[in-house]
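[Amino acid chain]
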Amino acid sequence: MPTAQSLRPNLIGPAEANPVQEKTNKNLLIDIGIAVALVLIGVGGYWYSPLLLPKSDLVAAPTPGCDLHRNACAATLPDGGRIELSISPRPIPMVAPLAVEVRLDKLEARKVEVDFAGIDMNMGYNRPELPRVGPGHHVGTASLPVCITGTMAWSVTVLVETDRQRISVPFRFNSEPH
């Protein structure tokens, strides 16, 4: 016959924690957190990549043989418009303030930016926007970071945004320590 103690429910208290199960749950939560973070980084990169790598509707070639160390360089657009870039002082120094000037002919821009990028070495984001100072005339300042290798090949791309399209003109030059 059952006793009073055997009829009482088995109340031991809270279940003892299983350390292996807790560690597995903690690792699973960490893995899920990392996966969510990677997905968010991927989605953010996809949505914000046009800011860093803008797509151009038209890429115009600069006049061959032009040397930004000696004078302004220009590119003629298919519709007859013209984009001219001038950087001073000349020759173009590293780690010194640069006066950057863009002149537009037969072209009305909403925004003009100049993107400086190292050709053989990533030198970071360096894209100042040039404010409009007159009709077709945009002026601003920039500087080139120092390169530990000495001579540095640069691409300076003029990015012109109009109401209808985004135009880019990639110019190239080399900088040397002075």
